[in-house]
Every structure is written in C-alpha cells, then in structure tokens.
C-alpha cells in the first residue's frame, strides 16, 4: 500500500522542484575556451603500454564491437643454460578503431597484464573517419596522458595479497617433525665460515 498524503502533495512537491531549478543560475561550460574539469577516471581514449602486452588476445576476444586488431609473430629467445629456446610473442600490430568503440572498458578490465588504461583525453576528432583507427604507436602516446592511479580508500577492504600475507605471517610455524631449515651439511674439507 502506498503512502496516503494530502491530496495534491505530490504536485506541490514537483512544482517546488521546478521552481528551485528555474531560479537557479545556469552554468554554461565555456569549452573550448575553457577546458572542462573532468574526473580523473573519465573515459576519453584508451592507452596501450606496449611492453606489458603479451599478445594474449583476451581484449580483442572480449571486445563487443570487434574493434581491436592484433597481429603478432613468434620469436625464439635463446636462454643461456636452457635446454630449448623459448618462444616469445612479438606485437606487430595493435589497433583500436575509435569509430566503432563504444567505450565500455571491457578490454581494459579483461587485460590480465595491465597493458590498457583509460586516459581522460578526448580531443581527437578527425575529419576522416579512417583516422580514428589508432595504431600501437598512437595508442602508446596516450600513455603520457593517463593519470596516476587514485589513492587507496582508507575505509576500503585491504588487497587480497595483503590479507593473504598477514594470514601467512599469523599462522604458527611448520609441523614440529619437519625442521624449518634444512640441516647444514659441513663442506668437505671444512670451512672457516
Ligand atoms: S572500450 Fe569496449 S568497445 Fe572499446 S575497444 Fe574496449 S572493449 Fe572494445
Ligand atoms: S588483453 Fe592485454 S596483454 Fe592481452 S593482448 Fe590485450 S592488451 Fe595485450
């Protein structure tokens, strides 16, 4: 059952809001003469930190608009002492087509390697729609405009790593039948250490 009030109460409340809004001074944003003060986590453009990208393809697969284009090749890295050479993915192409992007941020969420970031920069309109395809160099340049991460919320939950570390530190030592450190075997010939 709804709240039974004085007849016309809702109308009066509504009109009061209208009156308040009508008498409030309006603020016109003076853009482009005055740059807007955007929240630091505004979704302007996506920046790529190329050295963090492992070419795992998760971002491209998760993008609902299919507007991330990635090409790569494998390179052999010979590690001294290793039995076999290692394989490494080398990024040849990483493009985002901002004419298709809907700024959902799924690619940034999906990246397990912190290679993608939001930048609040939004002034990259083009006369030719094809120029909205930003290649990896262009995406890399946006990194300079990525704001530092916000400070931790003092009332927030501690990070999982922190709680795990605290729990580990609080747990009693290993079972008694296993020595904490392996027994030190004396060096043949003896040492003076
Ligand atoms: S923000 Fe969304 S639409 Fe844009 S590239 Fe990322 S996943 Fe695709
Ligand atoms: S999800 Fe991250 S690491 Fe994987 S391809 Fe995309 S940007 Fe690179």
Automatic annotation (TrEMBL):
Q: Residue spans with biased composition (Basic and acidic residues)? A: 154-165
Sorted alphabetically, which PROSITE patterns does this protein's record hold?
Answer: 4FE4S_FER_1 (PS00198), 4FE4S_FER_2 (PS51379)
Where in the cell is the protein located?
A: Cell membrane
Quaternary structure and interacting proteins, as annotated: NDH-1 is composed of 14 different subunits. Subunits NuoA, H, J, K, L, M, N constitute the membrane sector of the complex.
Q: What is this protein called?
A: NADH-quinone oxidoreductase subunit I
Which keywords does UniProt give here? 4Fe-4S, Cell membrane, Iron, Iron-sulfur, Membrane, Metal-binding, NAD, Quinone, Repeat, Translocase, Ubiquinone
tRNA-binding: is it a keyword of this entry? no
**One Pfam family recorded for the sequence:** Fer4
Q: Which InterPro entries match?
A: 4Fe4S_Fe-S-bd, 4Fe4S_Fe_S_CS, NADH_quinone_OxRdtase_chainI
Q: Which family does it belong to?
A: Belongs to the complex I 23 kDa subunit family.
Q: Where is the signal peptide?
A: none
Coiled-coil boundaries: none
Residues annotated as binding [4Fe-4S] cluster 1 are 53, 56, 59, 111
Its lineage opens with: Bacteria, Bacillati, Actinomycetota, Actinomycetes, Micromonosporales
Q: Cofactor stoichiometry and binding?
A: Binds 2 [4Fe-4S] clusters per subunit.
Catalytic activity reported: a quinone + NADH + 5 H(+)(in) = a quinol + NAD(+) + 4 H(+)(out)
Q: Which cofactor does it need?
A: [4Fe-4S] cluster
EC numbers: 7.1.1.-
Per UniProt, residues of the 4Fe-4S ferredoxin-type domain are 44-73, 92-121
- Quote the function comment for this protein: NDH-1 shuttles electrons from NADH, via FMN and iron-sulfur (Fe-S) centers, to quinones in the respiratory chain. The immediate electron acceptor for the enzyme in this species is believed to be ubiquinone. Couples the redox reaction to proton translocation (for every two electrons transferred, four hydrogen ions are translocated across the cytoplasmic membrane), and thus conserves the redox energy in a proton gradient.
What membrane topology is annotated for this entry?
Peripheral membrane protein
């Amino acid at each position: 059952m709804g709240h039974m009030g004085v007849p016309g109460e809702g109308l009066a409340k509504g009109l009061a809001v209208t009156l308040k809004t009508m008498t409030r001074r309006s603020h016109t944003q003076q853009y482009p003469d005055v740059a807007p003060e955007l929240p630091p986590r505004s979704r302007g453009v996506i920046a790529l930190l190329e050295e963090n990208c492992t070419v795992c393809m998760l971002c491209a697969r998760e993008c609902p608009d299919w507007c991330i284009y990635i090409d790569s090749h494998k390179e052999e890295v010979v590690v001294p002492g290793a039995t076999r050479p290692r394989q490494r993915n080398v990024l040849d192409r990483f493009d985002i087509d901002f004419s298709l992007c809907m700024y959902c941020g799924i690619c940034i969420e999906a990246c397990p390697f912190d290679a993608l970031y939001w930048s609040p920069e939004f002034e990259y309109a083009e006369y030719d729609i094809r120029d909205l395809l930003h290649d990896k160099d262009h995406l890399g340049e946006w990194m300079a405009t990525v704001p530092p991460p916000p400070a931790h919320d003092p009332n927030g939950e501690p990070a999982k790593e922190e709680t795990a570390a605290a729990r580990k530190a609080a747990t009693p030592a290993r079972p008694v039948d296993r020595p904490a450190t392996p027994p030190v075997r004396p060096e043949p010939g003896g040492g003076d250490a």
